[in-house]
Amino acid sequence: MRPSGHVPLTVGGEVRSAADAVARAKSPRFRAAYVHVPFCRHKCHYCDFYSFVDDQDRGEAFVRRLEEELAAAGSFLREPLETVFVGGGTPTMLPPVLLERMLRAIRRELPLRPDVEWTVEANPETVSEEIAATLVACGVTRVSLGAQSFDPALLAALERHHDPASVPRAVARLRSAGIRELNLDLIFGIPGSTLVQWREDLSRAIDLGPDHLSAYGLVYEPNTPLTVKLRKGMVTRLDEEIEAEQSIHAVDALAEAGYARYEISNWAKPGCECQHNLLYWENADWWAFGPSGSAHADGVRWKNVPRLSDWLEDGPFSPVQDVECLGEDTRAGEAFMLGLRLMRGIGRSRVTELLAMGERGGERAQAIKRHETTGLLVWRDDRLQLTARGLMVADSVLAELV
Ligand code: SF4
After folding, report:
1. pLDDT tens profile 264-299
2. CA distance 33 to 292
């Protein structure tokens, strides 16, 4: 559902580039940067991120074009950034010399806080000793590894082609190179999986001692090959009850292992929450580099054009599409949707402020009251939060508040 109150940004001239979009924001305060590297070794059939197997060897052209925008954007980013996230795609698939050139350009051109949290996403099989050393030498502090499962049959069901043994190997290489924080991504709800397999996956992940764990239920995104297979009956969705049991087991096992759940799908050791994602959930301002990256500045939102060839052609700022100037009502709805994903929820004074914004405050206040009665929302320590039951049906509760 698209929230009401969004206004397509067409007033007063065309918005063609990221710089035009930023110029529309009243008082942007960029706290983070996202860099999208679109290359992958294989396109997994459940994935709807913009990524592809590049048969034209455009890694160098990509990095050169990125350097241009990093240099140009530096003058807009006056305050040192708190976080940088290099995602994709598979950033660590760039040859080490290009990976290093990209990371050095980020460090050279963007103002970064001395204690910046700097994450790079990696697929386990791409983490060689040389890649691990390059990340550390350039200032990367955190690596997010796409483990997904340790069961070869489930990896095959996801069309992930890495060997499960590559995960502990990557963890050991990253730790010995000096990476401070490690995240492992896991997926549950995979067709054909069982509770026993999921227990094993979680326990193998925990045994590797990551600082942070993300556990997502498999999503059938529209227009992915997996969803087409589901429609054609070539794939059977996992039974809802088994998926719910897997989700409940994650909550129990991770708590027992000393990980605090701080967001619906994210757990961390104390002090190791992903600051970059927290900035997203707090609706902060961030600049996005690279094709298909989405950015936000003080109520103006845009997306860089997704096709690499289009993105390469224009510069120095990314050509953009889907530019929106968010109305008060949409901003309030999104603040509820994002803030309630966090276990700490939203403070009472902020809830009051959000209910006063836009035309749907009355409806939202009623929905909150109703869900307090049904036991899905609760006021705890003067903060509005989803209850344990509310977390199980979070999407439908949040849809009413958005
Ligand atoms: S490796 Fe990650 S980004 Fe690449 S296709 Fe697979 S899921 Fe998508």
Report:
1. 999 999 999 999 999 999 889 999 999 999 999 999
2. 14
